[in-house]
Amino acid sequence: MRMKLKLFTAAATAIFFTGGAMAQPSPQGPAAAVSAARDYHYQNGAQIVKNFSDLLAIPNDALDAENIRLNAETIAHLFSERGFAMQLLEQDGAPPLIYGSLETLGATRTIAIYVHYDGQPTEDADWTFPPFEPVLYSKAMSDGGEIIPFPVPGDVIDPDWRIYARSASDDKAPFAALLAAIDALQESNIAFTSNIKLIFDGEEERGSDHLDDYLAAHADKFSDIDLWLFCDGPGHQSGNPQLVFGVRGVTGLGVTVYGPNRGLHSGHYGNWAPGPGWRLSRLLGSMKAADGNVLIKDFYKSAEPISALDRAAIAAAPAPDDRLRKLFGMAETEASNAPLGERIMIPALNLRGLKSAEVGSKARNVIPPSASASIGIRLVKGNDPSAMIDLVEDHIRRQGYHIVREDPDVKTRAKYPLIAKVERESGYPAMKSRMDDPMVAPLIDALRAAAGDLILAPMLGGSLPLYMFEEASDAPIVILPIANFDNNQHSADENIRLGNLFYGIEAYAAMLVME
Amino acid sequence: MRMKLKLFTAAATAIFFTGGAMAQPSPQGPAAAVSAARDYHYQNGAQIVKNFSDLLAIPNDALDAENIRLNAETIAHLFSERGFAMQLLEQDGAPPLIYGSLETLGATRTIAIYVHYDGQPTEDADWTFPPFEPVLYSKAMSDGGEIIPFPVPGDVIDPDWRIYARSASDDKAPFAALLAAIDALQESNIAFTSNIKLIFDGEEERGSDHLDDYLAAHADKFSDIDLWLFCDGPGHQSGNPQLVFGVRGVTGLGVTVYGPNRGLHSGHYGNWAPGPGWRLSRLLGSMKAADGNVLIKDFYKSAEPISALDRAAIAAAPAPDDRLRKLFGMAETEASNAPLGERIMIPALNLRGLKSAEVGSKARNVIPPSASASIGIRLVKGNDPSAMIDLVEDHIRRQGYHIVREDPDVKTRAKYPLIAKVERESGYPAMKSRMDDPMVAPLIDALRAAAGDLILAPMLGGSLPLYMFEEASDAPIVILPIANFDNNQHSADENIRLGNLFYGIEAYAAMLVME
Question: A268 near A367, Cβ under 8 Å?
Fold first, then answer.
């Protein structure tokens, strides 16, 4: 008897394995696929990790044109080797969109798989190791993990081992898992059951500004898709795998307020020249209450109400709140500890950063000329990105500010005591699929072969540009995350737990052969 | 007839000069000294500028031990060459205090001259040129000045030319002016009228933490001083020279508030994990009202009331407010345009800097782990530095915060929803001399020989550690600034207008021979 591996959850599990000759003809279907994938990653774990590490070593900031192209070419080549027809679609000033397709004999369904190959910008100073030099740890750094050598063939891989590197989870892990899943099925002669299309985005972390144009320019390639599968995001915070039916949209803005037109000596002018930091603090303080409630007029008005089906799903999922508060070192979370599952169903106003002159040992006795904030907005169904920024701008005006788009000139400074430069960001709306769509039912069944305790989540807090695909077809869109939730996504020391990578191989294998 | 040079004010003036053989014996007294100084800087301007530039090229951050010592040795050598007995007084972990003395035959009075040779920390990125590579401009950069070559002997020097470098004004200009004044008097055989002591501080911009100990350890050197003369700070904002009878004290604190113990993805946790930037904004917003009024309980309570003599002096000085608002690009200043002269007579709460994660193109979609502010406090007579920080701490506590001295540990985080790390800075109280002290009267007369329109100012907004000298003797303490007020002191592109340097030479010459 074969023991079920607890690959996804953080609990370490002894690994038993029975070998055995491959039967002819191969058994088919999700359960067989999961079994084949498990055999495969057990026998080829060191090589899978090595290949993944090589991919992680290619820097992937979307603004780094040279390396981003190297990523695109490398990834296209890897899928081309496995029989996919690959193309790099191009647009001026944009990273390539990697497109691939594979016809499956007798398939009546076409599924599209989305992954993004760019990563969040890195701040090297915060990283324990350089972000593009992958390092293997015996477990999470924060749990006392230690550096260990990368495995060689024959080594048993502990599922709690973690690779640390930018994009280890977000979002190169799906490439590694998908490639291994394909290899596993091919080695075991298990046939795919769908036609497959690949769409790999190169600027997701920069807002996918060109994806809309790419989809429009190549509409013929995407018109026959029956199910969109988005491979991104972390697993549920309970430690269980999940399938997700919606994502929040995202937008943001930069706000800069002004003091004197140059830094002034805080002794000679302190108490006379208005400090921009005080102005910014008062302005931001007026936007969000201590209980987490956003005070901007109509901020919650356009959000669609939460459906009964969604509410039931939230209630059915294990609530990770207490564990997360402990993990993240917070005595209390917003709205008097309101559940995370509910909180991500409403729009969020986030303060991503603040900057004015310097603090700590670098602080000087100066009244700085300006103070800036970076504000992010997470959107739910019903919120229009631009209209949400309008609400913030209206609020800033109501606090007495004159709004400008560039640093104010002499005339503007002479006229308005309070001036705010607002830099509007692009963004995109939320996406929400029905949880009872019949096209998704076989996928749920397949995934349960890989993960018995699959959570069906109405919404992911994070954002993906899925609204575009929603607009482009009637096909349902679901998100299949594989990463551990504590992957430090978007921060220093991003990582993936190898057990999660291996779950991904099994889950994708099951998906590729779903009924 | 010799025309009076308008050296101090910004208006350019044609320069006429009558040569002539030196009479024997030399005329004495302040008027003769000013005349001799004027002859001297007219004939030796290029060399004075060159010597000054060489001194500015030695980096002088107080934390740069090697270069700070090089400054000290260089300056001591320059005064030693001119007949002063020089010593570098030493203390562990502190820059040397430069001490010098010169006995004057028949003098019944000892004056002490204080200058500091360290400069504010620099942020090279903000500077048009590296801060320790002096550059000469035809006038202020902000007025369209252009780079010009340094003068050679024989060149006529325009008083509107400016040298750009760190400490050009604050506070190396007094060294250049004093050395030239001494040379001018010696060349014209004009005798000093006081015994002179020199005290040159090497860590004023870092708070003069060791000056107290230096004074205590060498109390015998300072016990016979009859008048303290502090050469630092800018001229009056009207463009006129000034003699100042008080300085604000200074202290400060760093405040850091916390969110999650690591950066969290703003999508997955935005609206649930409290953002530290919001917390900091609300906290700071509670400290100071939009009209400039500090809302911290008892903040204004310990300040001594403004005397009638001081009020009269403020009223008598030209009010620079409208011009400064225009120059600094502000439609309105604090407290509904209340006069600068009054505002610096009360304590100030300044926000020197803000920092949380990143803004602008470097911003990431993250809930940062912390947000920090750097707060400066300017003090007036009656304010105790430590007690003023206590008031801020009490205020922070009243906003619901638990105060810590180090980043909070797991236990503290679990216990307190709101945690603020307060890093208290050292500091010192204000100093205030009587404007009608008889020891100061001859100095006022002497300075009027160099500057007819001398302003007598009760208070300088900036800070100097003069309280120590106030404690150490009964002698009055006055400040004689020479720098142009628009010198970008404490900011990038610090500069001095050469007309102000030359005024300094004349003023110091007059001071050295006062009745």
Answer: no
The first and second tokens of residue B227, run together, are 């008048």
pLDDT (0 to 100) of residue A58: 98
A1 within domain boundaries: no
CATH code, domain with A47: 3.40.630.10
Question: Last residue of a domain, which of A371, A404, A424?
Answer: A424
Residue-by-residue DSSP string for A429-464: --EE--TT-TTTHHHHHHHHHH-TT-EEES-EEEE-
**Which has the closest alpha carbon to A199: A164, A174, A234, A177?**
A174
Ordered alpha helix ranges (H), A139-192: 173-187
Helix (H) or strand (E) holding A264: strand A264-265
B:78-97 residues touching chain A, CB 8 A cutoff:
none
Hey, what amino acid is at A56? L
CA dihedral in degrees (B328, B332, B336, B337; nearest 10)?
40
pLDDT tens-place string over residues B433-476: 988 899 999 999 999 999 878 999 999 888 888 888 887 777 99
Name the 3-class secondary structure at A284. helix
- Tell me, yes or no, if B356 comes closer than 8 A to chain A by beta carbon: yes
In chain A, how many domains are there?
2
Residue A354: inside a domain, yes or no? yes
The 10s digit of each residue's pLDDT in A88-143 is 999 999 999 999 999 999 999 999 999 999 999 886 668 999 999 999 999 999 99
Q: Are residues A199 and A178 in the same domain?
A: yes
**Residue ranges of A 384-443 with Cβ closer than 8 A to chain B:** 408, 410, 413-417
The answer as to whether A82 is a domain residue is: yes
Torsion on CA atoms B450, B456, B457, B458, rounded to nearest 10: 140
> How are beta strands B460-463 and B246-258 bridged, if at all?
parallel
Query: Is B460's CB within 8 Å of A376's CB?
Result: no
- Residues in chain A with pLDDT < 50? 1-6, 8-23
Residues B267, A372: C-beta atoms closer than 8 Å: no
Number of helical (H) and strand (E) elements in chain B, helices listed first: 16, 20
Residues of B (20-49) whose Cβ lies below 8 Å from A: none
| CB A324 within 8 Å of CB A344 | no
pLDDT tops 90 at residue B11: no
CATH number, domain at B397? 3.30.70.360
pLDDT at B126: 83
* CB neighbour list of residue A237: distance below 8 Å, 6 or more residues apart: A320, A323, A324, A340, A485
Tens of pLDDT, residue by residue over A225-252, are 999 999 998 888 788 899 999 999 999 9
Q: A457 and A402: one domain?
A: no
Which residues make Cβ contacts (< 8 Å) with residue A461, sequence separation at least 6? Answer: A248, A340, A344, A378, B265, B267, B268, B269, B270, B271, B272
Task: Assess if residue B6 is contained within a domain.
Answer: no
On whether both A37 and A120 belong to a single domain, the answer is: yes
**How many angstroms separate the CA atoms of B306 and B474, rounded?**
22
Range of the domain at B265: 248-303+346-424
The pLDDT value recorded for residue A17 is 33
Tell me the two tokens of residue A320.
């990770």
Residue pair B495/B451 in contact (Cβ under 8 Å)? The answer is no
What pLDDT score was predicted for residue A11?
A: 32
Are B405 and B499 in a shared domain?
no
Taking CA atoms, A313 is separated from A316, A455, B188, in Å, by 5, 9, 95
Mean pLDDT to the nearest integer, B169-177 = 97
Identity of the residue numbered A112: A
B353 and B450 part of one domain:
no
Query: CB–CB of A328 and B261 under 8 A?
Result: yes
- Looking at the structure, tell me whether residues A208 and A257 fall in a common domain: no
**Same structural domain, B39 and B86:** yes
Confidence tier at B119 by pLDDT (50, 70, 90) = very high
Task: Say if residue B197 is in the same domain as residue B77.
Answer: yes
